[in-house]
Each structure stands twice: as structure tokens, then as C-alpha cells.
Amino acid sequence: MIEVRHLTKHYGDKKAVNDISFTVHDGEILGFLGPNGAGKSTTMNMLTGYISSTSGQAIINGVDILEDPIAAKRNIGYLPEIPPLYLDMTVKAYLNFVYDLKKCRLPRRSHLKDVLTLCKVKDVEERLIRNLSKGYKQRVGLAQALIGNPPVLILDEPTVGLDPKQMVEIRTLIKRLGKNHTVILSSHILSEIQAVCDRVIIINKGVVAADDTATNLSDQVTTDHRVVARIEGEKAAVLQAIRTIPGIKYVRADMEREPGIWEFEMEAQPGQDIRRDINRIARENDWNILLLKTMEMTLEDIFLKITMGEQVEMNKKGGAQ
Amino acid sequence: MGAIYRREIGAFFTSSIAYTFLTVFFNVAGFFFTMNNLSAGATDLMGIFSMMFVASVIMIPILTMRLFSEEKKQRTEQGLLTAPVSLTGIVLGKYFAALTVYIIAASVVFFYGIIMSLFGTVAWMTLFSNFIAMVLVGAAFIAVGLFVSSLTENQVGAAVGGIVCLLVLLLSDLAAPRIQVEWIQKLLVDLSFYARYYEFTCGIFNLSSVLFFISTAVLFNFFTVRVFEKRRWS
């Protein structure tokens, strides 16, 4: 379990992280989302004891990282943004070094073999890290974090530099690890967070901008009142007709998707379902509807919305649905 | 500490550093051995020891330059600093690794002793105390070099910085007679590495000098720990 209470980090006058609080329970995977320089890595560095906090506490499995750093660090497996790899060592020698460094007590050979297999780096174990591709280096970095089987895993952008297939593999691996580990991972890739994480924290300018489950986050801003329709009919007439629907806020012709067929994007009042109205005007004018769907907001939209400064009221009840 | 020590020893011998260091060290020592002993036909190894002191000033920073600067540059220090080891453990692991390589280099004097014993009588006790002196000076110099290495991420900068620091320690002794202010003069003489080392080469085993070198080593290792401590807290 990780408890973060009012964690703050100042660099001179600059507040890199400002009063962040959250809790990650055992067996939970938490995603950290935020633009560059939002304070994701700084927060992770404070959690792992690489840098100290200006104020506030980070408690890892009941141990304060600043009060008893060695005991707290024993519980953490950390993959920093740039994996801490010694380029002049072979993968096997490096992982052996990490095993010694962490004063690991698990049976050496079988544990190393497990980690090598788990991260799929068994086939390169005798190679110098210098000669590995970025994807392999990243996986060796992950292997390094897993040595000693620490209950808490902190992974800073674990899938950077991997090809799509490896990405899926690593995500599956993290998801599997999440069953009996506490995991925090940061990422730029929103679909990744959506696929892997139970909970998402969006950090912007050093403060928590949102903290909820991934589904809740997208649910609360998913709306039936925003609709995309592909209608076979004359553009100006369609626009005109849609504007007559009561409560419509805006409508625009988005793109000519098929020859002579435009896609229209429209928004009505929150809570108002206008799909039937669209059907009605199409019937009246004898147009064909080729596509009709509500615009779902993805994490991408939420992310952009929040980081652009538009606060989404997360706890607002009965918004859509 | 043990893990870091073993890794550093490994890194010294998988990179070219240990080989370069040992080659240069053996060559320089061999040169003076040939000049002072073999050609001159003398068994007194004192000449080698006083020359190796000067040579160490230039060579030790090369041994220590990459120890911390490389970690910083490759971002591997993040792995060390987030591992369940103390800062002191990290610093001492690296320190003793460099010291080990240095001791391997310095041990060559026993080989010279053996060669000389074939031709005459060798003062083994003096040779041994000289070896101890060389190790002690090395221990102090390595701590200084390690400290400089922790300040920068540039290896060359660490080497040059280390050489400059050691030269200052070496040359302050020469400057002392020219300084009129009495207390500064006294301070420089008291802090002189060379004067203390010279005693050893003359066969005097002075316990206060032993303590002096050990204290310097402890002090600079402490400074290195403080460098990391400070970076973490700033």
C-alpha cells in the first residue's frame, strides 16, 4: 500500500509538485497521466527516495520513505524514466548485481530465471547491455525492478520504445503483476492507462487534476447529447433541418465522407437525447441515415480538457446517461 | 557495499581503465627502478617511492574519474540511490574498489625487492613501511579523486579537477617557505602530504602521519556522502 499525504516539492521558487495526496491499495494499479513537466517523474522520484520532498509524507507499506529509507526501499521495485543500466555488463551479470544490491534472499538461480523469463530477456542474457535494442533495454529495466519480488512497483513510462507487440505483452505482464503487487505506472499513452489501470490520477502543473477509475472518468463525460450522424442529403438543407431541433446548441458539417454524403457533428443540451429527432427529420425529408452514433469522450479528450485548463467537474452527479 | 565493490572491480577490468592504469604505473615505476637501481647498482628503493608519489598525483584521478561521473551521466545512480543501501555503502564500495586496483599496482615494489635481493641485501622492513606509506597516500588521494568525481558528470572534468586538487596538496608544501604570514606557513607545512610521505621514504614510521592520511581519506569520503545527501535534499 502506498499513502501519499500532501507531498510537495519546490525547486527554488518553482513548485514542481504541489500538495499531492492519494492512496494506492494492495493489488491496485494506478495510472499517472499528465503532460511533460507535470510532475509525474518528480512524484515518482520522491516515492522511491531518489529525491526528498519539501514537505509531506510518502508511506510505502507503512514505512515513511524519509524516516527509514532503507526499509522503505526494500519494498519498492523502481523503473525510472531512463532505465539505470550499466552498458558494460551482460544482462545476466547486471541482474546478478541488482540481486546483490537489493540483498535479495530468494533462491538466486531460480529467481533470476523467473525474472528473465517473465520479461522475455532470457535469449539475450549473455549479451552486453550496450548492444541491446531499446525495447530489450526497457525490458531489462523492468526485470531489474522485479528482482527481489518487491510488493510495490513504480514504473515510469514502462512501454516507451517498445514495438506494438511488445507493448501489449508488457501491458499484459503489468496487469498480471497488479494482482499481487501495488503498481503505479505513468504513461503518455492514454489507451495504455485505460487498458491496464484500475484508477487514474491526472496530474497537471504539479497538482492532482482528477482522481477516479478510468471507466468513471470517461463515463462522467460520455454524453448522449453529442451526436455524429452521416446523412445522405443536401448539406445546406440538412444543416437547416437539424437547427430546427429544439435545444440544439450547435451543428456543423464535419467532412464529406463519401461522395455527396456529409458527416454532421452536433450537440444538444446535456441530458437530451436527439437521436430520435434526427430520425424524424430524415424521415420527413426522405434522407438516408448511414451512420448515427453518440460521441464518446475518450480519456484523450478528458486529458486534453483537463490539461488545457478546463476543469471537468468530476463529482458532478447525473451529468449525462 | 559488497555488490557495488564487486561491480566496480569488474568494471575496472572489463573497461580499459585498470589495464591503462596498471600499464602506466608499472612503466613509470619500472623506469625509475631501472634508472635508480639496475643501472646505478643500488638496492635502495627510496628513489622509486618518492617518484611514485608525484606520479600518483596524476594517475590516481584517472583511476577515480569515472566512478561517480559516469553513473550520473548514464543515469545509473538512480538505480543505486533507490536501492536499499546506504549512501555510505555506495561511496565506500566504490572507494575500496579503486583502492584495491591501486594496491595491486603498488605491490609491484615487492617484485623489485625480490629482484634486488638477488644482487644484494634489501631492507625489507623499510620497503614494507614504504609500501604502507604509498598505500596510505593512495587511500587519501583516491578519496579526494572520488569526491571530485561526485561533483561532475564529465569524466575529463573529474580527472582534471582531481589532478588540480592533488597538485595543490602537493605544491602547498613548496610554497610554504615563501609565505611570510606565520600561521599560514605553519598550516601549509602541517597539511603537507609530501613532507609526511618523505619521512616514510627515509625509513621513519610516524604514527601521526598514518593518522593524517587515514583522516584525510575519511574526511573526503564523508564529503562525498554529503554531496549526495545535499543533492537529494535540494
Distance between the termini of chain B: 25 Å
- Taking pLDDT < 50 over at least 5 consecutive residues as the criterion, the unreliable ranges of chain A are 310-321
Question: Which CATH architecture of the largest domain in chain A?
Answer: 3-Layer(aba) Sandwich
Order of helices and strands of chain A: EEEHEEHEHHHEHEHEEHEHEEHEH
Number of helices of chain A: 11
Structural class by SSE content of chain A: alpha/beta
Written as H for each helix and E for each strand, in order along the chain, the element string of chain B is HHHHHHHHHHH
CATH fold title of the largest domain in chain A = Rossmann fold
Count of the domains of chain B = 1
The main sheet of chain A comes to: 6 strands, mixed
The counted number of beta strands of chain B is 0
Neighbour order of strands in the largest sheet of chain A: 6-7-8-3-9-10
The largest pleated sheet of chain B is described as: none
The number of domains of chain A: 2
Please specify the SSE layout and strand pairing.
The complex is a heterodimer of chains A (321) and B (234).
Chain A: E1 2-11, E2 14-24, E3 29-33, H1 40-47, E4 55-60, E5 63-64, H2 69-73, E6 76-79, H3 91-101, H4 108-118, H5 134-146, E7 152-156, H6 164-177, E8 182-187, H7 190-196, E9 199-204, E10 207-213, H8 214-221, E11 226-232, H9 235-243, E12 250-258, E13 261-267, H10 275-285, E14 288-294, H11 299-307
Parallel strand pairs in A: 3-8, 3-9, 6-7, 7-8
Antiparallel strand pairs in A: 1-2, 1-4, 4-5, 9-10, 11-13, 11-14, 12-13
Chain B: H1 2-14, H2 17-39, H3 46-74, H4 77-81, H5 87-106, H6 108-117, H7 124-151, H8 155-175, H9 182-190, H10 193-201, H11 207-233
